[in-house]
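Suppose a colleague, Dr. K., hands you the sequence of a protein chain of 204 amino acids and asks what its three-dimensional shape might be. Before reaching for any lab equipment, you can write down a predicted structure in token form. Begin with the sequence itself:
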Amino acid sequence: MPAPARAEPAGGRGDDDDASPLAAAQRGDPNTFGALVMRHQSSVRRQLRHLVRGSDAVADELAQDTFVLAWRRIGEFRGEARLSTWLHRIAYRRFLMHRRREAVRIETTGEVPADEAASGAAGTGATGIDVDVARRLDVERALAGLPEAQRLALFHCFQLDLSHEEAAGVLGIPVGTLKSHVARGKARLREALAAWAPARTEPP
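The predicted structure, expressed as tokens, is then:
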């Protein structure tokens, strides 16, 4: 299977254009599968970078694992969901496996997880940053402070632009539960970011 290229093309997910290369890939053509990797790797890597909370090396390794597994199972894809959703589901499962392995390793060695160390270092912000950067950092901190279920629901729906049904399928939860996580997460974000809300002007 061709390895995912490092260059990430711009543009959308291209699901409408997947049918022809997908059919060829399911017939065993690695070159057309490589084209699908190029089309979807940016979104998959973005998902995994969020899940591992900033460890690019780990995210890239998990993305590689995701596409290797997708190539092995491409014949099982039946088009019941978009190809991008299917890939995100595989990526999320690979992340869960990685987290279970890390939990066992940390319990055995007592090491601090790399993502926690990175997030702790990122929290020591500098002064004098502009308003846009400050706002973005506050949003990132507010998202990081959400319960994991709410954070993942918001990320998959709004940053990966999945529908509620697709996000629920990726995360392996009922649609109603996903919608509840989204609503609660949005409410907590509004509260946490209230200082950035436009000031209301009273009519004369």
